[in-house]
């Protein structure tokens, strides 16, 4: 475990220097950036190690894995739900998620509203925007930019939901900087209507620099921190 901790620490130092270089290039303050450690496929014991490195925010992309792991994790963290979410999992996710990043349709927003209401919670959510213009079946989730306004309006009028910002994943096979530039434009229009919804969750291990350049406030970092995940499914 000692060595594992040292390895993760050295990965974290590399990530932090990438973040600080990207921030100085874009004239942004490091304090604007929140690092979310994506712990999918890694056991609860490894999540607990992250606490020793000062990490407070962790992300999971599957409800079943997340809820099992949370019951085993000993340290306290803010949990982020970042994966595609089936409406029937909303009830479980609201019990532990500080922030749900992946709201991409009305039916899911309705379920989250209902589930948050049932436990008297105000659930913070982000709308996931699909930047992939060549993705007709929306395989990676996200709302089409054209449908963003209607979804944002519904969420902002939902008693138990707080619209906190936007999230996106850079499309495969496209320069992330070009995709995040489109995202920044979408966000700047969105902020005119929702000036308090300032979170922008964008940037993963491979593209955090491009995300910071285009305004990301929350980075979701898995493999650069914890190592390559075994390929499953
Ligand atoms: C797995 C995952 C990440 C982290 O990806 P890495 O490339 O390992 O940093 C970020 N966002 C989402 C939605 C993910 O599913």
Q: What are its keywords?
A:
233 residues, alpha/beta, TIM Barrel, eight-stranded parallel beta sheet, 42% helix, binds pyridoxal-5'-phosphate
What would you say about this model in short?
The protein contains 9 helices and 8 strands.
Descriptive account of the structure:
- The chain is α/β, with parallel strands linked by helices.
- It has a single domain, classed as Alanine racemase (TIM Barrel, Alpha-Beta Barrel), CATH 3.20.20.10.
- Helices cover 42% and strands 18% of the residues.
- It has 9 helices and 8 strands.
- It has helices at 2-25, 44-51, 63-72, 90-96, 106-118, 148-156, 176-193, 208-213, 223-226; strands spanning 34-38, 57-60, 78-81, 97-103, 123-129, 161-168, 199-201, 218-221.
- Strands 7-6-5-4-3-2-1-8 form an 8-stranded parallel sheet.
- Helix 4 crosses helix 5.
- The relative contact order is 0.15.
- It binds pyridoxal-5'-phosphate.
- Pyridoxal-5'-phosphate binds at residues 38, 40, 61, 82-83, 169, 204-206, 220-224.
């Amino acid at each position: 475990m000692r060595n594992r901790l040292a390895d993760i620490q050295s990965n974290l130092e590399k990530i932090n220097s990438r973040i600080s270089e990207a921030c100085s290039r874009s004239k942004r303050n490091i304090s604007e950036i929140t690092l979310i450690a994506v712990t999918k496929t890694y056991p609860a014991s490894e999540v607990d190690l992250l606490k020793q490195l000062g990490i407070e925010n962790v992300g999971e992309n599957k409800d079943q894995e997340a809820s099992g792991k949370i019951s085993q994790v000993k340290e306290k963290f803010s949990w982020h739900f970042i994966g595609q979410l089936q409406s029937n999992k909303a009830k479980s996710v609201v019990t532990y998620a500080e922030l749900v990043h992946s709201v991409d349709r009305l039916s899911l927003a309705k379920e989250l509203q209902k589930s948050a209401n049932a436990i008297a919670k105000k659930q913070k959510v982000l709308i996931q925007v699909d930047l992939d213009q060549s993705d007709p079946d929306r395989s990676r989730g996200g709302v089409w930019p054209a449908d963003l306004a209607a979804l944002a309006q519904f969420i902002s009028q939902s008693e138990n939901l707080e619209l906190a910002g936007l999230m996106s994943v850079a499309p495969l096979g496209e320069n992330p900087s070009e995709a995040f530039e489109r995202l920044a434009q979408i966000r700047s229009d969105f902020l005119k209507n929702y000036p308090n919804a300032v979170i922008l969750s964008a940037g993963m291990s491979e593209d955090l620099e491009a995300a910071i350049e285009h305004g990301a406030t929350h980075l979701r970092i898995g493999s650069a921190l914890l190592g390559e995940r075994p390929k499953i499914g």
